[in-house]
Design brief:
Elements: E1 4-10, E2 14-21, E3 30-31, E4 35-40, E5 44-50, E6 53-59, E7 65-67, E8 72-77, E9 83-90
Antiparallel strand pairs: 1-2, 2-9, 3-8, 4-7, 4-9, 5-6, 5-8
């Protein structure tokens, strides 16, 4: 099952996307083309499938984090409930 992405803002400087993951939903493998910030709207665990293995990331609502362009992974909702976050890509 695929996660749902809804672009809220897209202009010459940023792309702001709301991501919704049903239990077990995933993004599919992808590579980030831009630096980005994630703002979790839900607390819980996202499972990250990366080139060097799989790991669980414990996220807390409201505690943002940033990553540089080039991150390559598949993101999976490992919770029994919907997980949501806002992704802000910097162009």
């Amino acid at each position: 099952m695929k996660a749902t992405a809804t672009v809220q803002v897209q202009n010459e400087r940023v792309i702001v996307t709301e991501w919704r993951f049903a239990p077990g939903a995933e993004t599919g493998h992808h590579v980030h083309a831009h630096d980005y910030v994630v703002v979790p709207l839900t607390s819980g665990i996202l499972r990250l499938q990366e080139s060097d293995g799989t790991r669980d990331a414990n996220l807390e609502a409201g505690l943002s984090y940033a990553r540089l362009a080039g991150v390559s992974h598949n993101v999976i909702n490992a919770n029994s409930y919907e997980f949501r976050f806002i992704e802000i890509e910097l162009k």
